[in-house]
Amino acid sequence: MAPLVTTSAQEFRAALPGGGALLGLDLGTQTIGTAFCDAGWRFASPGKTLKRGKFGADKAALAALVTERAIKGVVTGLPLNMDGSEGPRSQSSRAYARNVAEALELPVLLWDERWSTASAEGALIAQDMSRARRASRIDAAAAAVILQAGIDALTGGFG
Question: What digits encode the pLDDT tens for the residues 53-63?
Fold first, then answer.
């Protein structure tokens, strides 16, 4: 049976009865922003930005992070249209999430990412970060926003 891929925080939580550290992903066409949260699902922190390539290379890089951080589940952004409908990017993200779930044998929660980049950029600007530095950190910061929203839903904080 393939690991769970869902948009339901409740289903995802049920797949992880013991909790555990989570990996957040913000999928771009050229990069993958990563973020991590503690096993108690309290806060998300930006990780590294990976260069996106063929899935085999992505899988190896993600598997290394999973092993290094003892990851138990993945929260990845689902790019919805502003009206909440799904387009081609959503379908691509769903396919990628299925590949990640199978390759890493971990449950995946797909989370609405409509405002994640704008929110992340606002936070980086508030830190008075230069445009060049923001550009290098935006994907990981967006992954942290996505992951934090997911863990807030998992713990009853929001959503």
Answer: 999 999 999 99
